[in-house]
């Protein structure tokens, strides 16, 4: 399942990043989004997601959220 289906405030483990776009993959990696890392959806605002990865909180759009498999 992808991150858009995650429940708020529940910690998940990233299983894979599913994208053919190397730039998108590199961006997610720079945020700390890679296989085995823990991620939590803090809030959802329309097509925007606030996620917590490691010690940071990031605002990502629905396309990024769909690329993150949990």
Automatic annotation (TrEMBL):
InterPro entries: Fe-transptr_FeoA-like, FeoA_core_dom, Transcriptional_repressor_C. The keyword Iron applies. Pfam families: FeoA (PF04023). One of its GO terms (molecular function) is transition metal ion binding. The keyword Membrane does not apply. Keywords: Iron. It comes from the Bacteria. Residues 1-70 form the Ferrous iron transporter FeoA-like domain. This is FeoA domain protein. It comes from Peptacetobacter hiranonis (strain DSM 13275 / JCM 10541 / KCTC 15199 / TO-931). The lineage of its organism: Bacteria, Bacillati, Bacillota, Clostridia, Peptostreptococcales.
